């Protein structure tokens, strides 16, 4: 798992990086949480770093890759959803949602993930839900503002 994380962030080959993302997904589901939880934020950061190097309009042509990114991000976040309260997990999820919003499968997958995160955090009490709302509402408001400015925004729709 550590070698996959290293290769995902340092290897020059796109094929290697994508393979590492796919491998991470398998590690996250196969390994015990005691092994994966300590690297949860590192995994989310590596996914964010990978996504920041991509032309997101090109990713729309590769639904398979977007689904793999979203599923790997989901598995990393769900190790401990409280990471969404302070980390970049939700921001990354919304970034992918904004670029994959025209794809029904991706939209439904992201909606389900967000519902799972919300349910898990709500179960932890009103404080966690309040922190989640404080984190999410500015992003959602910003999406609506952008949609109003451009008249068309797949995420807003």
UniProtKB/TrEMBL annotation:
Secretion signal, residue range per the UniProt entry: none
Name of the protein in question: Importin-9 central HEAT repeats domain-containing protein
InterPro entries per UniProt: ARM-type_fold (IPR016024), HEAT_IPO9_central (IPR056840)
Pfam families the UniProt entry points to: HEAT_IPO9_c
Importin-9 central HEAT repeats domain ranges (all copies): 1-101
């Amino acid at each position: 798992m550590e070698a996959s994380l290293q290769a995902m962030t340092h290897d020059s080959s796109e094929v290697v990086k994508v393979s590492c993302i796919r491998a991470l997904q398998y590690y996250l589901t196969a390994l015990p949480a005691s092994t994966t939880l300590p690297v949860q934020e590192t995994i989310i950061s590596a996914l964010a770093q990978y996504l920041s190097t991509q032309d997101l309009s090109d990713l729309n042509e590769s639904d398979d890759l977007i689904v793999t990114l979203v599923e790997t991000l989901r598995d990393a976040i769900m190790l401990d959803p409280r990471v969404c309260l302070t980390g970049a997990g939700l921001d990354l999820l919304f970034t992918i949602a904004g670029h994959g919003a025209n794809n029904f499968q991706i939209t439904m997958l992201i909606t389900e993930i967000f519902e799972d995160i919300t349910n898990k955090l709500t179960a932890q009490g009103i404080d966690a839900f309040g922190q989640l709302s404080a984190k999410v509402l500015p992003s959602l408001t910003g999406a609506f503002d952008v949609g109003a400015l451009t008249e068309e925004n797949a995420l807003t729709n």
